[in-house]
Amino acid sequence: MNFLAHIYLSGDNDLIKIGNFMADGIRGKHYEHLPAAIQKGIVLHRAIDTFTDAHPEFRKSTHRLHARYHHYAGVIVDVFYDHFLAKNWSEYSDEKLEDFVSRFYKSLEIHYEHLTDKTKGLMPYMIEHNWLVNYQYEQGIARILYQMDRRTNNVSKMQYSVEELKEFYEDFESEFKTFFVNLKVHVDQKLLEL
Fold it and tell me: What is the pLDDT along the chain (194 residues), one digit of tens a residue?
């Protein structure tokens, strides 16, 4: 899953959200100096990724993209799935997406001293362009995929995957919805264990 889903699945604890959000940039056990709740967020992020990669609906989505995008297919589907979460936000939360995202941005500022350098570098751009809210729009997803493609020196061709999103939109959305119900149950159990 991509940023929005990881944050959403973290529950109400701001530090767990932050850990879950910045976990991709943390290798091995290089997080044991951080507050316990951030550590839980990092562990939760890894559990979400493991569950996601093995889930049959996620794999169905990635299979549709694999011939053209190879190992980037999973990254693309992560972004697609954040689009469907944002687009259908009212099915998953009583809080408006804009309010949820605003609170998260504020918590990043409050806990700035705990952020990784990578997160500190990403944060201003993410807030300025309001990525998390703009995930709900196809043009927002297109912009994100274009930027991600540029970071691979256009090797990934991710920017072109918007074509598949449009062509197989209902399939991706249906797969997301089935998958996300299962993921939510898994994450709720994992949070109890942590």
Answer: 689 999 999 999 999 999 999 998 898 888 989 999 999 999 999 999 999 999 999 999 999 999 999 999 999 999 999 999 999 999 999 999 999 999 999 999 999 999 999 999 999 989 999 999 999 999 999 999 999 999 899 999 999 999 999 999 999 999 999 999 999 999 999 999 98
Nearest Cα residue to 2 out of 121, 112, 120, 140:
140
Rounded Cα gap, residues 139 and 190, in angstroms: 34
Question: Does the predicted model carry a pTM greater than 0.90?
Answer: yes
